Amino acid sequence: MNAQQLKNSILQQAIQGKLVPQDPADEPALVLLQRIRKEKERLVKEGKLKKKDLESKPIAEDEIPFEVPESWEWVRLNCITELIEDCPHSTAPDEGKGYPLIRTSNVGFGRLLLKGVHRVSESVYNKRNERAIPQQNDLIYAREATAGNIAVIEEGQKVCLGQRTVLVRPMQGLIDSYWLAYFILSPYSYTKLVGESTGTTVAHVNLADFRPHILPLPPLAEQRRIVAKIEELMPLVERYGKAQDELDKLNESLPARLRQSILQEAIFGNHVGIQLSEIKIVKLKEICEIVMGQSPEGNTYNNSNGIEFHQGKVAFGEMFLKPSGVFTTSPTKYAEPDSIVVSVRAPVGTANITKRKICIGRGLACIKPKQDADLMYIFYLLESPEVREYLEDNSTGTTFKAISGKVLQELEGPLPPLSEQKRIVAKVEELFGVIKEVK
Question: I want to staple 339 with a disulfide (CB 3.0 to 4.6 A). Which of 63, 198, 335, 400 is the partner?
Answer without folding.
Answer: 335
